[in-house]
Amino acid sequence: MALNGAMASLSEWIEGARPRTLPNAVAPVVAGVGAAIALDSFSWWRSVLALLVSLSLIVGVNYANDYSDGIRGTDENRVGPLRLVGSKVAAPKAVLTAALVSLGLAGVLGLVLVAVSGHWWLLGMGALCILGAWFYTGGKKPYGYYGFGEIAVFVFFGLAGVLGTVYVQAGRVSWAALACAVAVGCFSTAVLTANNLRDIPTDIESGKRTLATRLGDQGTRRLYLALIAVPFVLSGILQFTTHSLAALTVLSAALLPQSVKAILRDATGRELIPALRDTGLAMLAWAVLAAVGLNL
User: How high is the pLDDT of residue 139?
Assistant: First the structure.
């Protein structure tokens, strides 16, 4: 372990950015691009800008959480990926700087995207996304410590991510886009739910009152199963309404059996880590297949 003044290695910084969470940033943009194509409004460079905004935002969120949880001592006995501050491999100020740079980059790229689209009211949504990223675990009363993290993830990495990607290209949204937004939001929330299920014991000990600590172990497992079911219900609705190939998304369910098995057999601790990975991959696969299905 490094002392406060030491620098983490490049591999530790990469791990601290939590690459396994990147599907949460990529999936909403992919689904949004598919919906934009269906509206005959695809713009590759606006799509790339939207993707860069989303990636910068989630990396910023991860570093900000690392910093805020680390200085509070929440991560001292954490089970899961490396935490830079909690493990003392990086100075808190260095992690804070990384968080602010990432969130700042998201803000600048978002400003460019809003400027070229001409929809200036989106600046408000962008500002809310950045504030939401910081105050999830930052500030005196972080809302993630009071059970509102799942709602924020659903809104920011579901509704805002998908519908924002569509809107900056098409200037409008569709019912299919809304269905994709809800589906991706549920998947993304399921990833956080699995994460918080794993952390219930340490979160209770540190006083972090997540939704999982409030629902309890079994209630959180039921919530996870409900969340991953919603996207496939929406697939069925799209299939039998306007998009006959929306059922392609059912193929993404092939990535979920191990996650469901872990949830149903009351797996705990590190046994739940694959559930986070597989749920994220299923979300990304669902988004890709939805984008294809909406346009064939």
Answer: 87
Mapped to the 3 state alphabet, what secondary structure does 18-75 carry? CHHHCHHHHHHHHHHHHHHHHCCCCCHHHHHHHHHHHHHHHHHHHHHHHHHHHHHCCC
The amino acid that residue 169 corresponds to is Q
Question: In the 8-state DSSP scheme, what is residue 4?
Answer: T
Looking at residue 177, its pLDDT comes to 96
On whether the CB atoms of residues 31 and 180 are closer than 8 A, the answer is yes
Instruction: Give Cβ neighbours of residue 67 (< 8 Å, ≥ 6 apart).
Output: 85, 92, 95, 96, 99, 138
Q: What is the pLDDT of residue 170?
A: 94
The 8-class DSSP code of residue 85 comes to: T
pLDDT at position 3 is 43
Please return the burial class of 270, using the count of CB atoms within 10 Å of its CB with bins 0-12, 13-18 and 19+. exposed
Alpha-carbon gap, residue 116 to 120, rounded angstroms: 10
- Cα separation, 61 vs 79, whole angstroms: 19
pLDDT mean for each 10 residues of the chain (296 residues): 61 90 96 96 95 96 92 68 84 95 96 92 93 92 92 96 96 95 98 94 86 96 98 92 84 96 92 91 97 91
The torsion angles phi and psi of 6, rounded to 5 degrees, stand at -80, 160
Rg (CA), the chain: 19
Using N-to-C axis directions, what is the helix angle for 273-293 and 23-38, rounded to 10°? 10
Residue for token pair 């149903």: 264
Q: What is the pLDDT of residue 241?
A: 82
Q: Contact, 122 vs 164, CB < 8 A?
A: yes
Task: Of 246, 247, 273, 244, give the one whose Cα is nearest residue 258.
Answer: 273
* Residue 104 · residue 172 · CB < 8 Å: no
